[in-house]
Isocitrate lyase/phosphoenolpyruvate mutase family protein (Kibdelosporangium philippinense), 246 residues
Amino acid sequence: MSTSALRALHVPGTPLILPNVWDAASAKLVEQAGFPVVATGSAAVAESLGYPDHHGTPVETAFAAFARITRAVSVPVTIDVEGGYGLPEAVLGTRLSDIGAVGCNFEDTDFENGGLVEANKQADRIAALKGAFSELVVNARVDVFITAQDQKAVLDEGIERARAYLAAGADCVFPILIRDTEVLRTFTEAVAPAAVNTVYLPNGPDFAGLAQLGVARISLGPGLFHFVKTQLQEKLTQIAAGERPY
């Protein structure tokens, strides 16, 4: 599948569902289940490699893991590169191209100084990334909602950031962790017809409900990784107690 075909899967109201993976084995399972795209999740990849999320993984270790995933499957792979691991955007684009990735998540959190990258600066970073790899499908994360106690209070800033990122060349915007469905609906309508990514939350709308809000892409984030980890912990507890695990 080409990058243009990947873009075509981002249809508002008929979203692309991405069960985020963390290694080659989970990537193969996603492909075998019939999903047309494999997407990594940074938190799960980092933990699977023994590092914390938020740029905790050394860049070479992270890209080695990404390369194993892209080699393991025949479907397109989009990589969660967090804020770029400190790489210049031109280098980041080249590295993604070299491992065969066709898309990436790119965050506007400032990992060095805390807070968020200034919106115009982040837009420039997105433009530079697209300049280095023009066909890359960039999913630009908008992180203002993560810690906001009142998500309506930061809605205008989130919309302004999204519009700036789209104008800079982003293919999709990702207002991560919006928990208020009306905030998500307003955000999606404000940037229409652009593609909006949201994350599935267990206590939020189901896939059909999110589709009705007009999103074009749904990520599961670290949810599947945590589910598998919980199942393994239960089996290990049974083994430690001398019980049959299966």
Q: What stands out?
A: Residues 138 and 170 are 5 Å apart (CA to CA). The domain at 3-240 is CATH 3.20.20.60 (TIM Barrel). The longest helix spans residues 223-240.
